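Q: Convert this sequence to structure tokens.
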Amino acid sequence: MFRPGNVEHFFNSLLILKFTGSTKIIAFADGLLLLIRGETVSEIENTVNLELTKISKCSRENKVRSNEKKSKAMLMSRRKKKERVEVEVI
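A:
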């Protein structure tokens, strides 16, 4: 169980991290929304991995764990061409 102060400090720490220009982060209650924009699926995948590494490091430093069962990923596109994409949240 985490003390509320840990989570609050974690969110404050997250909000001051330097994310890429294509990334927007929104923290609310006990949740976190990560929005990433890119031209290609591989560009988005690379940015996601980079940003999740930063978030993971911040989590460890603040002794906060995420619930993988509640973690979700969604890829949205305006493209008409379909691509087979698999997203794995670790």
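The mean pLDDT is 77.
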